[in-house]
Amino acid sequence: MVIKQRSRAEARIAAAIAEAETRTSGEIFCVLAGSVSSYRDVSLTWAAAAALILPLLLIPAGFEPSWVPGFSGGWEAGHLAARDITVGHALAAYALLQAGVFLLTFLLTSIPAVRRVATPRRIRTARVRRAALQQFLAHGLHVTESRTGVLLFACMADHQVEVIADEGIHAKVDQAIWAEAAEALAIGLKRGDAAGGFEAAVRLTGAVLAEHFPPGQRNHNELDDRLVVI
Asked: What pLDDT shows up at residue 96?
């Protein structure tokens, strides 16, 4: 059932692209990504920072090895010969506490919802943009005959949308206009209708391209009219 729904959605998007490209020499390509990064480095950074900082907050409160289960039998040695052992226990307990904080923080920030909040927006935006650019190049949108390829890219995990237009379009089209296409796609994704979002974005993109890049005499299709899911 899910496969059929996906096939219908992809068919709707392909039809929208084909219809839009009948009125322009430009090329429209759509990519839907589940995720673009594991952000494991972000989780590791948070875990390392927490392990270094949080245990320090216990020192002013008089941290003792006995606070860590298994590091005290309830008796304390009062003679000087036991000092090295006491210090060793304190260091071991502190290291164990750091390891526990590191592991707990890493696991917590590995939860998708928490990770999205813990990852700075500029990092998520940069990685989605990089992934979109990679797809733009990988599918040859930069080598169309008139350099008029447009990529509509969406990342589900990061809730981010990117629209990349080739250099042939920059000279004629105000880049702010692509914000409308991105917003249309984002709205569709927010309401759980990815196909509807892509269709709306494709129509807006096609209208812009038709205005500035009408179809030529040949108007051959340089790229497949389809949605790529990665």
From this structure: 82
* pLDDT, mean over the chain: 85
Per-residue pLDDT, 153: 97
Per-residue CA distances from 30 to 33, 56, 173 (Å): 10, 50, 20
Which value, to the nearest 10 degrees, does the dihedral of the CA atoms of residues 135, 43, 190, 156 take?
A: 30
DSSP string, 80-113: GGGHHHHHHHHHHHHHHHHHHHHHHHHHHHTSHH
Residue type, 98: Q
Q: Which residue has the tokens 């797809």?
A: 135
- Number of neighbours of residue 7 by Cβ within 10 angstroms: 10
148: which 2 tokens?
A: 């008029």
Question: Is the pLDDT confidence value at 122 over 70?
Answer: yes
- 112: Cβ contacts below 8 Å, ≥ 6 apart: 157
Report yes or no: 149 and 142 within 8 Å, Cβ to Cβ: yes
- How is 5-29 classified by DSSP, letter by letter? HHHHHHHHHHHHHHHHHTT-S-EEE
Residue range 193-203, pLDDT digits in tens: 999 999 999 99
Long-range CB pairs of 55-63 (<8 Å, 24+ gap) are: 55/94, 55/97, 55/98, 55/101, 58/97, 63/90, 63/94
Residue 169 — very low, low, confident or very high, per pLDDT cuts 50/70/90?
Answer: confident
Cα–Cα distance between 109 and 49 in angstroms, integer?
12
Give the pLDDT score at 1: 44
